[in-house]
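Hello Y.,

Per our agreement to keep a running log of every chain we model this quarter, I'm adding this entry. I've kept the format consistent with earlier entries: sequence first, then predicted structure.
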Amino acid sequence: MTLTTPPRAAGEPLAGRREWTALAVLMLPLLLVSMDVSVLYFALPAIAAELRPGATAQLWILDVYGFVLAGLLITMGALADRIGRRRLLLAGAALFGLASCAAALADSPGTLIAARALLGVGGACLMPATLAMIRTLFRDEAQRAKAVTTWTAVMAGGISLGPILSGALLEHFWWGSVFLVNLPAMALLLLLGPALLPAGRGAPAPGRFDGGSALLSLGAVLPTVYGVKEFAKDGWSTGAALAVAAGLCVGAVFLRRQARLAHPMVDLALLRLPAYGGSVLVNLLAMAATVGFAVFTTQYLQSVLGQSPFEAALWSVVPTVGVMAAAPAAAMLARRIDRAYVMAGGFLVAAACFGWLALIDLGTPLWVVLTASAGYAAGLVSAMTLGNELALGAAPVERAGAAAAVLESGQELGGALGMAVLGSVGTAVYTAAMPASAPAAARETLGGALSAPAPVLAAARAAFTEAMGGAAVGAGTLMLVAAVCSYGLLRTRRPGA
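Predicted structure for the entry above:
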């Protein structure tokens, strides 16, 4: 099977109003799927007051959605190529809507955890199918670049908007409303999808679906992501290390199986293409910096500057303004010069802005922090947009579902790694900066110092600002590595080259 995509034939029409309308319909469920990652941040206190989950159950309520989503992406991407992307997309929308109702009406922690797990299954159906559908709808490179820019912006914006929507709904309604808001978008997709979206089948003879590979991919991703997140939360532990080791071992078995199958779930030859494998790598690094540093920004706004959660959520949306302007500009620039230079430039801008954030202290005005954050977000998302489009263009149309799933799985893993690595850096700097005379709880986290005497709290806020600077140095280093990888791996690489 050839891994190159032929250029658009001279007589092949460009995408028209129907395709762009279909894209708009696809973006609504994508927005909600991405928002569900963060929508419970404000709702959890209300959920805890009514359902009274224990500490472990609270963690599972928050995390089970992301775990299931990450674990099933590769499986659902391969399934989309076999049964049809539209069919899987509509099935995912129906399941997501039903699971949203179940979550809103949950009367026990166990029921809510199960509903959140089903939401993860539905999200895993929707995410790769939406990106793969773009590959089917838009064959022209310039149009596909615009469509992928929209997809990336909606995906990033949803994660930022989740807490804001949650806070706004909880001002007037009960906590279940944060789930019921999903229903109109899913209903719209089920209503308009059959008329607007192509079936999006893969190859005429894609081979049977390999259940063994599906189980192995789940066994590789789930313990790896779980272990890395445990490292980010609690530092080194034997259980987390064993989980990561088990995931890597199962991953090695999974890759070995893929190399032997006639119709693999993940095409290893595609991963070896610099245009695809290189894009997966740099997007993983970009997500590591984005997610890993976002934790520090949220705590800085609330615990250092003393903002309310809702106020902090509103301020955190400000950097997306830079993204909205930079991503389309980067896509236009990439049509004139080698996109590898544009991507490397975006990562260098992000690195410079992280360097700026490394210099902040307690006296730094908020506008400086927001400006630097807007700069790194603009550079990161611009580069990621081009990477997404390059990877999709490099994949054959019949393998678009699996290709999109691997790309998104890399981003999920990158986010978990970023939380672990940058979180460890920040914790080390914070602990070293705190005076030895401070209470043990205050020396461990800033949250542990919030109820301490004023001098200890002031020292903790100063130490956390230093920790944020240390994390910014780590994120900037990741961006320099991503810039080098973009320049070295992706030069002169065009979709289909």
